[in-house]
Amino acid sequence: MTSDGHDILKDGARINQARSINIGESVWITDNVTVLKGVTVGKGAVLGINSTVTKSVGEKQVAVGNPAKVVADNIEWKASLTY
Predict the structure, then answer these.
(1) Which one of 3, 14, 28, 77 is most buried, by most CB atoms within 10 A?
(2) Residue 52: enclosing H or E segment and its boundaries?
(3) Cβ contacts of residue 61 below 8 Å, gap of 6+?
(4) 29 lies in which domain range?
(5) Could you tell me which residues come within 8 angstroms of residue 17 by beta carbon, excluding any fewer than 6 positions away?
(6) Contact 41, 53 (CB under 8 A)
(7) Which 3-state string (H, E, C) describes 20-39?
(8) Domain with 58 in it: what CATH number?
């Protein structure tokens, strides 16, 4: 979500501008995750199921919850092709 979905005005000027979201390489975004405007997610990070990411997450970090909090650092993950 790069914007709030509606304008908030003060003295006729919009005060809630849209901001970009930046997602690094090899980021695992699980089911039902919302990433809000202005957030950067670093390379190799994992965003836990049903999380709302309101602040940036660094490289190789795991963030979970609502609002999401970093719970682990220096992780590595690999996609499994076996079922």
Answers:
(1) 28
(2) strand 52-53
(3) 42, 45, 46, 70, 72, 73, 75
(4) 9-72
(5) none
(6) yes
(7) CCEECCCCEECCCCEECCCC
(8) 2.160.10.10
What is the enclosing helix (H) or strand (E) of 66?
none
User: What separation in angstroms does the CA of 47 have from each of 1, 16, 25?
Assistant: 15, 25, 13
State pLDDT tens for residues 52-81.
Answer: 999 999 999 999 999 999 999 999 998 777
Q: How many domains does the chain have?
A: 1
Q: Does residue 2 lie in a domain region?
A: no
**78 lies in some domain:** no
- Checking if the pLDDT of 83 tops 70, the result is no
Contact 55, 73 (CB under 8 A): no
83 domain residue, yes or no: no
Using DSSP, state whether 70 is helix, strand or coil: strand
| Predicted model pTM | 0.87
